[in-house]
């Protein structure tokens, strides 16, 4: 019967193995009754010990026929079908059955065929009587890698491909390395790393490597190089190593200035990090839980050592102190902020890369509220809003550990948001930083925005804080309260200039244009006025008690040690920052396309920047938006200058006549409040009524440009 057949098949199955050393040799004979465990690549689902492959997985059709023990004079049952489905028959009929039903629809993988199986292979849950029976399953396949049962052939092919992309070619139940042939070597910044074929797909591979994040890695390297110039040696941590590319670049270029620790909680990633260290001729110090040993790579002449750890990122940051910590998890990094600020040293740096742009860019607002405790909407300045949202979460996490922050750098690009902050220990810096977390009042009609005033008293009419008069002229509620957000500066000019010098020194070509834009944005000046060494550099090189030697200073760089001296220096820095508070860059920016006038050709962006600068306003471009303008001018003056220097289009000139601005408009005169309102009404009427243009309102109500 069927039970006898199953037992016989099981006994015959012991003779069929997948020896790793004999993948190209013939199968061993039936006399080998107990194969060695080290020769087996397939594991049982319910056991941690190696087992034989399933009987439906064979190399050749002849091997499948051996299981049936075909003889001319006897009827034999099919080894892959139950008795009630296919009765015992003679050899010629059974041969056609095995070939046409099982072998033709098999799935091939590395020389083996996973044939379709009709046996009852999966046990079901016990019934009420406590009996455990076998499930009556239909046709299915057995995975050669993880022993899973898959019904569809197309699903089985996709299942095997996912194993290959993840580097799992043997078993998912123990850590098994993929063969060397499945790796590819990627070179970046004179550093070689091995990656898997599916390295650029997160959550599909253990060693995630994204080539698009090269700019992000260069910016973090420049920040670390600046910190390494302040004090040596510094202990730095790459909390999410993956392939170890970032930590390897730190150790390879900065050498004895840094002590690099690369951490990852995945064992496959830790093994790959160790191999990549050997590939770059680095010594490796392993610290995996209780195990602590050293292994030396090929380059024994190199004295650089990288410590590789295997533990959760929160655990290692709770156990040890670091000068520089970089967090780059998949998605949000808010789950690691508390442990990051717990033991980070004074005047150290914490950098974090957030890739959950769907929530940060207000596409999933409920997720932003859940992760960051912040209410945001989609605005024209949504990228800067994302950076300020992250910094607000960082500020609150640091304040819980009695630490304040100074924002050194905030970059929001297409794929990520990078924030770099310096840590200031003490309750006073923590209080000062916490006071900069405020709410933002945003007008949804004209996109005007202003931070809510400090204080706990409830205002009678919050709309009075907005410069625009949309609430008075429009029905209903026109503004929304966003936040809490970081209201302070997003850049430190002195730190950015030193980062630019490091980028030039190490030949980081991709980071240099962005750093120049960031310096101009921090100083709120145009690129043509930019210079690497400005006369005011000496006063800007003092940051949080750290003095740095610059090209126009002769004193050696030093760090003030001691609690009392550090507190005195910090108090001096606070006074200097209060004195230079007026020089801070204005918050947020305006998009020139968003506020362009219908039927008018707006001026070129660089010319428009000059017009605003001539009007007496601070102005610069921004990296957040290629058509964005960061300026100290209010929105009404921004629109007035834009309207003055816009020219009518050819079609509009014939249809509506030329647009003439009054000759008495002079940049620098004050603009009456009524005139500002009329300009707003002109644009709104322009959208609603086709016959009324901005020119009519401009001729009826002359406007003037005001200086700041």
TrEMBL record:
It catalyses: guanosine(27) in tRNA(Tyr) + 2 S-adenosyl-L-methionine = N(2)-dimethylguanosine(27) in tRNA(Tyr) + 2 S-adenosyl-L-homocysteine + 2 H(+). One of its GO terms (molecular function) is tRNA binding. Signal peptide: none annotated. Residues 26-39 have a biased composition (Basic and acidic residues). Residues 143-163 form the C2H2-type domain. The keyword Nucleotide-binding does not apply. The keyword Phosphoprotein applies. One of its GO terms (cellular component) is nucleolus. GO terms for biological process: tRNA N2-guanine methylation. It comes from the Eukaryota. It is found in: Nucleus, Nucleolus. Residues 1-49 are annotated as: Disordered. SUPFAM superfamilies: S-adenosyl-L-methionine-dependent methyltransferases. Keywords: Isopeptide bond, Metal-binding, Methyltransferase, Nucleus, Phosphoprotein, RNA-binding, S-adenosyl-L-methionine, Transferase, tRNA processing, tRNA-binding, Ubl conjugation, Zinc, Zinc-finger. Belongs to the class I-like SAM-binding methyltransferase superfamily. Trm1 family. This is tRNA (guanine(27)-N(2))-dimethyltransferase. It comes from Gymnorhina tibicen. The lineage of its organism: Eukaryota, Metazoa, Chordata, Craniata, Vertebrata. The gene is Trmt1l.
